[in-house]
Amino acid sequence: MEDGEKKDSQAPPPPLSAVHVNRPLVAANRAMAAVHAALVAAVIAHRVLALLSVSVVSRHVDVAMALADLTLLFLWTLSQSGLWRPVTRAAFPDRLLAAVPRDALPRVDVLVVTADPDKEPPLGVMNTVVSAMALDYPGAALSVYLSDDAGSPLTLLAARKAYAFARAWVPFCRRHSVRCPWPDRYFAGDDDAHGGREELAEERARVKKLYEKLKADIEAANKDDNISGSWTKAERQDHDAYVEIISGKEDGDEEEEMPPALVYVAREKRRAWPDHFKAGALNALLRVSGVVSNAPYVLVLDCDMACNSRASAMDAMCFLLLDDRRSPPTNLAFVQFPQMFHNLSHNDIYTNELRYIFGTRWFGLDGVRGPFLSGTGFYVRRDALYGATPPPGSTDLSSMDAGDLKARFGHSDRLVASLRGGGDDQRRRRRLPPEPVESLVATCAYEAGTAWGTGVGFMYQSVVEDYFTGYQRFFSRGWTSAYCYPEPRPAFLGSVPTNLNDVLVQNKRWMSGMLAVGVSRHHSPLACRPLLRASLLQAMGYAYFGFAALYAVPVLCYATLPQLCLLHGVPLFPCPAAAAAAFASSLLLHLAEVCVARRGRMDLRTWWNEQRFWVLNALTGQLLGCVSAAQELLGARALDFDLTTKAADADGRLYQDGVFDFTGCSTLLLPATTLSVLNAAAIVAGTWKMTFQFAGELLPQLFLMCYGAALSYPLLEGMFLRWDAARVPPRITALSVASAAVLLAVFG
Ligand SMILES: O=c1ccn([C@@H]2O[C@H](COP(=O)(O)OP(=O)(O)O[C@H]3O[C@H](CO)[C@@H](O)[C@H](O)[C@H]3O)[C@@H](O)[C@H]2O)c(=O)[nH]1
Ligand SMILES: [Mn+2]
Q: Its principal location (predicted)?
């Protein structure tokens, strides 16, 4: 009896989160994959048989096509890891609150990074900062850090003004349980409490006035030459470190009412020192925050990714805290939220939505060992970022010798002391220190000879630091992750580039950065033993993204060989039936994926946009990404982090209307435009030829080219049928026609 009672009182508390395996989808995905693999194998087998037969006319072409098909099959196989075991998760913040008193919640440091006040307007950045300050979390447990890589006086001034605004905004959000903590969106109408009480309406009007004032102040500062004009481009790349804690208690402030602390950080910049782009900025913020508040958890946000809901911190804790309450403990390092966007078009011609990643693959990888680190919108354990390994056998930094710690983390006594403090809450209920913060940890020379960027913090060596860090720092060391996808209200919303050139430049950066990791001798996921041992499926997922740029090669083959061979009357498909079946199944598989992401709605438009952008990207971002990665590998040129412009809403009108905006397109577009001209010319010439001597075995090829023409129609239209300012730049059109003519003259 007594025993029974004891058991009852020791009954485990209800779980704080749940995970659900989508079994029908698992079965369907695997069955479809088996069918498709069989069809592709049949196509390749026919190619090989044709190659072996003596009658073959164009051996080179057949070998190239066989290699193209094998590459496609290889990448497709790797991509299946993200469909293998899709799961969804739920968080129960109410249970968390029942289990842990609010003021005992662990502290969180929010790290926001910005780099350029021209491309990233400070008002937008401040919206992100203020939205994070208004998260539903105890104010004393939250601190927000802003890294400004430009070291711009304008951003610093905006941050001070933003803090002043936050003193009204944050209590307002708390008092009225506002759901949208992002002031610009809230006042633009994303306001769930309309028609509410009078008191709310009054206060809302007062806070709105303050927001208008913040806006006007930042605008005025932007126009003021003494502030924004005084800081030259050269100074951006060459200035001292500067850290300022922008919070302060004023008379009459209630502790409970106070917004979280805000800390502005401009790390030192010198031309002679590599800055390691965003990863370098985040590592500087990790150190400054380590010295100042040293919260055990960190939320990372890009400056253009604001909090759209106040719930994410509590949701994330439902997963992260589970860790300590479970035995044996799980080894969850981070909770990733999807990247979603506020300025997506209904007709998303550039596939900015990233459905492939955040709407499909991340659910699948979550069923393996967790989604990849995705740059922004994730809550992560500080100790894991510092290089600790999970239990059992975890490395405990606090018990390490001070000398060893200095060798790894640098010579700041305060940083080392923060590491030895075990990362927990010495200062939990205290406001940030009034004493000045040392900027030593934000200087260029600080990292020299330490493990920052290799064994500690965000990884350098790749411009896609998120992809690389996730795998090197976490997964290959035994950590896992979870995918938190709150509905219906997204936790974070970012902005997408709205002209084609920006999109392609961004894709080129991703592709070259990931390929550099994929083919690197020391870091390739397919050569990483700890990762392979932990999970082959996860290694496949990583390899897929590491090699995705290689799509350029088969697509290049398919965009030239069928065309040129048609002109020579050479058929390319030894078994048209098998080829047609494999082609159809690839289209259907893609359509099925889109429909699942849309909860069963047949979304043909998204499907078509994705088909089209996939080919376009293969011939631009991925192709040039391969070239850049090769240059880097050969030591010819280092990869660069080309910032994307965060468009003001008005700029994206063409994108919103579903019209391609070719403004500013560079030669990056050239391969795609050239090959679309070649394809169109070959269709015309080939059909003309066929009217005189019909050849049925050429029909599959002709069909494929017509599909290509339909996909490339916006390019052809942009070159030859549009006269507006956003058409393909005439220079590119002329070059494309000339290049296509040369190709035809040489090979046609
Ligand atoms: O030297 C730099 C370069 C960039 N950034 C910041 O990094 C963030 C991302 O840059 P952005 O130009 O917006 O790139 P995106 O292509 O939108 O970023 C995607 O791709 C990056 C990897 O290439 C990831 O880090 C991002 O999280 C992911 O959103 C922004 O806040 C920048 O201010 C810096 O702080 N310093
Ligand atoms: Mn961005």
A: membrane
